[in-house]
User: What shape does this take?
Amino acid sequence: KDPSFAIGGVLASTNTNYRVGKGDHMLIEACEYHDSFLDFHPVINIITNIEPEHLDYFKTFENELASFDKYVSTMRPGGVLITSPQLKEHFKTVTDHIFTVSVDGPSDIYAIDIVRHETGLGSSFHVVYQGQDLGQVDLYVPGRHLIYDCLCAIMAAIYDGIPFEAIQQGIAGYKATKKRFEYLGSWHGTAIVDDYAHHPSEIKATLKAAREIPMKDLWVAFQPHTYSRTINFFDDFVDALSMADHIVLADIYAAREVDTGVVSSKMLADALRERGKDAYYFPTFDEIKNFLEKNISPKDLLITMGAGTIVDVAHSMLSEK
Assistant: This one.
């Protein structure tokens, strides 16, 4: 249908995060920060999950939920919400036009017969929609969370009348969005991946996906994003990062904020070591690069992770190999 789109990441297939198509469809990846998503009034609305985030603006999770309620209530007439069974219970007071999605049911659409690819870089599964097995899809990106996202997209496509055969072809041709578990290259036998994850839940999902890939040790070079997020979810960051074998912390990426001295990456590293994890903090990217080059081994997996500039470490390593 040649849609237009504006999304948060750069698609590998188009090398851009926006496109003006000739069709009458517009796909937008909206964000709740500063209530910016309230400017949109979709016909098909996908909400994958809601959790405490951007508390520098919302202050409380209750305020954040109230914004989502307002967002859903302003959908266009006849609009439909696609979300999880758990969130349906919340939004059913706002709208009764809801389709539910889950990886393993029960819901309106879910997956069965999930088979991980031997490489760990994707999976194949059958799609069940309202009790009917529609057939198999092949997804070439790793992680259970991306199976869920894929099912949300399939549900939207079905609702819009797109034939399942076309849906199968589209999914099979999808390649990872840049900075979403993006493979950058190999450094002397160590695979290097970059990922945008900067919230504890995102980190957990990414590291769980990484564990599907055959490897020796899992390294994460993480740059926290904003002081407020780091302090608000400090213990959650420690829990999430503990899923890696080795963790290297860079200074917090300030973005729009000012360092008040309340929290630091060194504090995160200290907390991780208290849990028995192999964790380090270095104040410069050069120190991180030098440390990694001396300690990573062939068949390890290194993920540079965060919404800041930590990927520069990976680019520097790969440019000099």
